[in-house]
Amino acid sequence: MKKTLIALAVLGSVAGVAQAQSAVTIYGKLDLGVTKLSGDASDAAKATKLQGNHSSRLGFKGTEDLGGGLSALFQFENRFNADTGTQAGDALFSGPAYVGLAGGFGSVKLGRNWSTVDSVSSAAIDPFEGDGIGGLNALTRARINNSVTYYTPEFSGFGAQAQYILGEQPAGAVAAGTDNDGYAVAATYNNGPIYLGLGYGREENSNDSDVWGVSGSYAFGPAKIALGYDQRENEEVPNTEKTKNLVVAGTYEIGAGLVKAAYNQTRDGADNTAITGFSGTFDKIQKVSIGYQHNLSKRTSLYADIARTKVTNPGVSDTANGVGVGVTHNF
User: What pTM was estimated for this model as a whole?
Assistant: First the structure.
């Protein structure tokens, strides 16, 4: 009997150590609301719709202590449409999907990961996070396939990252002569009320097209102001104008609520915002967004956003107005 109790105690202690060394988190977001467009958008776009302000998702992430200050880490995330239950996009894991190592040297992640340039561009300071009625335009991609990314440790608010992207020579790019690998570098300063970010990248399979972005914000009391600028040069189509994108944004905390406002202007580019009713490339795209988020708890919030988008080409100018209200729950 005594030997049995000792064995159980040993097993319990080993299980406790194993549990302390490894951690897996299941997380997700469910978001649904009602959106409505009016103005010069197409009739199909102007239909009242039940859709999310943010992408609904289910993900898994975790770490394992390998000893000696070294840890393994992973994350993979599925995005889906909560109004129908269908998968969002073609990929099963359209969110991040990577594995890596972390230690005193920083961390390295391999797979589908967050874009280095996007993480410091105007997208980094968009109070609407690029989604829904209020989401702002961006020239950068949020996530990058086939990437190897290195993150330095942070020193007094300073950090840096470098990303290499394998083009893997897809048939279409090889035939067009645009097949190339890509890379990106970025640096940030995030300390107290000040945030600054700067990044540059060469896009894969793009005939060496490049993109860069810079962003910054300053917080004072309950208020925060932010400014971001991106620029992309398209080498796939010779003699095209550089696409330029500007974002000016601000937020203000009121108790459990957050007021959001932003102005976005894109020149010689496409409308990449989530919900506007326009598609194609325009000489100028202008958008004004105002929103309010009310936090019912740490995990559940209500939101209401309005926005006005104007697209302009020589002799043609169209506008669309949008409104969206809904609820977000994180777990």
Answer: 0.89
